[in-house]
Amino acid sequence: MKLNKLTKSILLFTVIVNLVITIIYCFNLRIGGGDEILFLEDLKLIQEKGWIHSIEKGISIPYMLLSYLFSFLFTNLQFFRIINSALFLLLVFYFYKRKVNFLFYFCFLFFISTSKVFFSGTNDTIFFLGIIVFLCEVYFLNKNNKWNSSLAISALIIAFFTRQLFWVYFPAILLGFYVIYKNSALKTINYKIPAFLFLVFVAINMPSLLVKKSFSYDQKVPEASVKSNWTQRNYLSQLAINDGKLSNGHHVSWEETDAYLVKNGMNSLPKTTLESAFFDLKLTFTEFFKNLFYASKDGFRQLGLIFFIPFILVLYLNKIKIKDVFIPISTIITLFVLCFILILNIEIRWLIGVFIPLILYYSELKMDSKWFSKFNYLNIFLIFSINVYAIITLSLKLKNQIL
Length: 403
What we know:
mainly alpha, 19 helices, 3 domains, globular
């Protein structure tokens, strides 16, 4: 696919405009909104009670280490968002060093401007950075036998110690190691830096390992008086939504959840995410297809036709080596895992770890056919159109926000 310089300049200009507006909008949002409050409280806990107590309670160690360091440099709590913006620039630099093409930058910058995760004060960015770098390095290994094994494994270790969401990506990670094995690269991995990094994080996690027999992760914990947990609250909320007693995107209260358990028994609601997936299989499969529908809709809004590439390629698996399509397969597996284990509201941001590698895969896909050329042009037109619409709508939101 060939685009002239003027067309490329116009396309790139529009996505950069959208990105800048998104950054300004995110930085003007109230500090502590959404999940940001969790990390603000964790930082306060570290400052007041110390690291050992905080790790015993449960925090995201890699992200809080960065937050703690940045807290000495900035007095404004915006530094949480500054951290993630810096990590975003680090990701851009990573792809720049990898000499990716124009199509990647166009789709990638558009995707970033629609997700907003990279400009909010949560640990999402550092987690996804680790997953993205690992999957992309494995992709480069398989494509041209050039990869930085130390960087790939180190990035994966950071992701592991950042969020328990790591286990949702575990099947994709296993597939990544299968690709490494098929390329005879397991024995050539440089383990020195990854091993040192792993031992450092294990040592830092010792307070949590000694007290809770598990690694330290951030926890959304209700007040001590509450008997239920978030899994139970989410499950009951979905039951209420299905019964028409609650609108989408809302939760029942903690008091309602506790009252339900008292009335129906402590085992009337699942206690863990895995348990909730098998608690009522009829409900699970109903929500699976609902989640898949909403994820497809949001995925199309963020990726355009790129979202459907994995499903198209799966039809040709008998003609393609699995290792050559491991990014699309990883996308499908991760999407299906999320849709299966979540009873309430899939959030498209949880798929960033496979969506960005999928953009890379698409941007370097070479197919000599007229239909694929038309596919590319149509996708660029769709993304450009969505991008222009996003600029208009977000500009109006920003105007109201400032005024």
